[in-house]
Amino acid sequence: FDVEKVDLTDGKYRGVYSESRLWEKIKKVAKIAGIKVIYYVLVLFYAMKSENVTMAEKALIIAALGYFILPLDLVPDAVPMFVFADDLSALAWALHTVWKNITPEIKQQAQKKLLELFPDVNTADLDKLW
Hints:
Blueprint: H1 19-33, H2 35-48, H3 55-69, H4 85-98, H5 104-117
Helix pairs in contact: 1-2, 2-3, 2-4, 2-5, 3-4
């Protein structure tokens, strides 16, 4: 996959993504989705705001976050063993693709927001997610 060849005119998930819809989804599913999924969402969200991330990478992030927001999944969230498995895969793929632009500052922003959602989280455990 070459992120620089992303077709920015393909708005498959762009119509789904908005910042307000993202926060609604996070609030709705935070406890169910768990720390890992929400942390990946937050890291991507803050990476998307970075000047170091190219437009093609931002389009990829928007696609992954749009898929997270989208109520219809490849694997229905109603299947207990696989709740958010496809969402996590899409998020992990996007993170892998933009990894070189994930700075300590982006991680700190994501951790700060995560602590607002999960006050009891041990942020030292978050480094194990990478």
